[in-house]
UniProtKB/TrEMBL annotation:
This is Trimeric intracellular cation channel family protein. The keyword Transmembrane helix applies. It is a multi-pass membrane protein. InterPro entries: Gly_transporter. Keywords: Cell membrane, Membrane, Transmembrane, Transmembrane helix. The chain crosses the membrane at residues 6-23, 30-47, 59-78, 90-112, 118-139, 151-171, 177-196.
Length: 216
């Protein structure tokens, strides 16, 4: 098993868990939870493959499906949803951070293998990492996370850029991939912990309202 395969499996497990927790949080039935987990885990990869004109790998290979259903079975067996709310939130954030970093790397690797330019590599990293989460959030009537909180999509873009530069420099190997994966996870968790966010129009609107009230 290569480093890429291992990272992809870890990302699939992590996103399946996050999809499971979202489905439970929305009080969906068994089928609904399975759908949210599948969308989160394989949706981004399907979008990526469609972009580059490939048949989605999940239609050709069953390993991702096996990983998703095994993860769901384990989550149900250990009654993950019965943990305390704080523990569930922590589990969701950690799982999402792991999936984000893992799928950003695997998506970027597809772009590098196809000899795409920097923009192409970044787009594939971004779509692979956040596509499933976007589909999941839309399905459960939520504003996608990348549009409203923390440094989320930005991390996928950063990983895509670094993957492109590492490939161009000939430094793409197991050591650098693992370092990039760990660094991406830590950056996402740190951004959540310290509430790092991109500037938002809502925040600017609130600040302007405060200034107007002060002037009045």
């Amino acid at each position: 098993m290569t480093t890429t395969d291992l990272i992809n499996i870890i990302g699939t497990i992590a996103f399946a868990i996050s999809g499971y927790l979202v489905g439970y949080g929305k009080r969906l039935d068994v089928l609904g939870v399975v759908i949210t987990a599948l969308l989160t885990a394989v949706g981004g990869g399907m979008m990526r493959d469609a972009l580059v004109g490939h048949i989605p790998q999940v239609f050709l290979r069953t390993d991702a499906l096996i990983v998703v259903f095994a993860t769901l079975a384990a989550a149900w067996l250990f009654r993950l949803e019965r943990r305390r709310r704080a523990a569930l939130t922590a589990a969701f954030i950690v799982a999402d951070a792991i999936g984000l970093a893992a799928f950003s790397i695997t998506g970027a690797q597809v772009g590098v293998a196809l000899h795409l330019n920097l923009f192409g590599v970044v787009v594939l990293a971004f779509v692979t990492a956040v596509g499933g989460g976007i589909a999941r959030d839309i399905l459960v009537n939520k504003v996608p996370m990348i549009l409203r909180s923390d440094l989320y999509g930005s991390i996928a873009i950063l990983i895509g850029i670094l993957m492109y530069l590492l490939a161009k420099a000939g430094w793409s190997n197991a050591l650098t991939l693992n370092a990039l994966f760990i660094g991406g996870c830590l950056l996402r968790l740190t951004a959540y912990r310290f509430h790092w966010q991109l500037p938002g129009f809502q925040n600017r609107h609130r600040e302007q309202s405060r200034q107007d009230k002060g002037a009045a």
